[in-house]
Amino acid sequence: MRLDEKVKIRQVAGENIIMRPAGNVADLTTVMALNESALEIYNLLKGSDFELDDVVKALTDNYDVDEPTARRDAATWVEQMKKGGLIVD
Amino acid sequence: MSTDATANDVRTYLIGGLNMAVQGHRLCQALDSLQGMETFAADGLATPDIVVEEATVPATPDERVLYTFDLNDGYGCCRMLTDVAGNTGYRFGSGSMLVHDRLGKGHVRLDWRGDLGELRYMLWLAYAHAALPHEAVPVHSSVVVWHDRAVLCLGESGTGKSTHTRLWLNNFEGAWLLNDDSPIVRIEQGRVWAYGSPWSGKTPCFRQQRVEVGALLRLKQAPENRIERAKTLIAFASLQPSCPPSMIHDERCADQLIDFVGRVIERVPVYRLDCLPDLDAARLSRDTIFSTL
């Protein structure tokens, strides 16, 4: 999988916010906030293809977390990215 | 997008604390007949912040469509465009055209094909684009004032914004209506103000006045009355959709608009109200908002 790099992350009222106007005609917008660690992982992984294992590695490399916790957090992160439409396959 | 200006005639208006000059004989004559404009007429103003000029605006080959949408009331399709110079334009089904000059500092050209309803809307759009750099934005809402504070009821068309503010007006002594559709919200010296405007939807409520904003209230129809203070993300998602919808599709506008929304929600509490169209709902919102003000 790959992260959508065309997305703009903005600092708004102290939060890292991503706004995605959905398409050209409909008036639907997704608004999502990334906490600091989610944003860090996003920045580490954007620009290249990655697998779930790469997310786990990014977590264990950068945070004081054991492997099982990292696996759970990685799965959550991927789900969050998918829900926000940030993963382009 | 090249132009050629028509005869000179000027009307000046003060809207949202900004001086807007409209130039062009046809435009001025038409504005004289538009209900509500006279409330905002102002004489002898200093250099205008916004200049709307009547012009002929032919299409150019380098235009790119950013966004397409349908206008209400059967006015058909409107295309939002940008050109190589970075100007933002709108082309209407009628052939009318609006261009906000990127470098013109509040300069907008209107090629208007003659329908009055369309003109009212075009003027709103012109104002929205030219006023944004001044941190003034039309926000789709019904605004009731009570105890010197403006409460803006936000929500999709038909959710019951006007119904809710009407409950306040009819039941809470001293409450009055500032605008029923599109007040101008402006951040000035760190404070947030709601101004009356010539755009008030179906209710002709035209007030050359401003009131400090006490709260934003996003409404949703529900089987029970419930209110909740919104945290940042929800507050953002409550206000942003009530700002002019096309602006988010132009990157330059989007940055300024999102910044504006962020700054408003940092300064003003935002509440989500799930409600019935009843007096209890109005009492709930009033008591919640004013217990903290």
Topology summary:
The complex is a heterodimer of chains A (89) and B (293).
Chain A: E1 2-3, E2 9-12, E3 15-21, E4 29-34, H1 36-45, H2 52-62, H3 67-83, E5 87-88
Antiparallel strand pairs in A: 1-5, 2-3, 3-4
Helix pairs in contact in A: 2-3
Chain B: E1 4-5, E2 10-15, E3 18-23, H1 25-32, E4 50-56, E5 64-71, E6 76-82, E7 88-92, E8 97-100, E9 107-111, H2 116-131, E10 136-138, E11 141-146, E12 149-154, H3 161-171, E13 176-179, E14 184-188, E15 191-195, E16 210-221, E17 226-229, H4 232-239, H5 251-267, E18 270-275, H6 279-291
Parallel strand pairs in B: 3-4, 4-9, 12-16, 16-18
Antiparallel strand pairs in B: 1-4, 2-3, 5-6, 6-7, 7-8, 8-9, 10-14, 11-12, 11-13, 14-15, 15-16, 17-18
Helix pairs in contact in B: 3-6, 4-5
Brief characterization of the structure:
The complex is a heterodimer of chains A (89) and B (293). Chain A is built from 3 helices and 5 strands, in the order ββββαααβ. By secondary structure, chain A is of the alpha+beta class.
Total count of helical runs of at least 4 residues of chain A: 3
**What about the largest sheet of chain B?**
9 strands, mixed
Shape of chain B: globular
State the total count of DSSP E strands of chain B.
Answer: 18
Uncertain ranges of chain A: none
**What is the CA-based Rg of chain A, rounded?**
14 Å
Question: Structural class, from helix and strand content of chain A?
Answer: alpha+beta
By oligomeric state, this entry counts as heterodimer
Q: What is the succession of H and E elements of chain B? A: EEEHEEEEEEHEEEHEEEEEHHEH
The fraction of residues in strands of chain B falls at 25-35%
Question: Can you tell me the residue ranges of chain B where pLDDT is under 50 for at least 5 consecutive residues?
Answer: 1-7
Structure description:
- The complex is a heterodimer of chains A (89) and B (293).
- Chain A is of the alpha+beta class.
- Helix content of chain A is 43%, strand content 24%.
- Chain A is built from three helices and five strands.
- In chain A, the strands form two sheets. A three-stranded antiparallel sheet of chain A has the order 2-3-4. In chain A, strands 1-5 form a two-stranded antiparallel sheet.
- Chain B is of the alpha+beta class and 293 residues long.
- In chain B, strand 2 (10-15) and strand 3 (18-23) form a beta hairpin.
- The N and C termini of chain B lie far apart (49 Å).
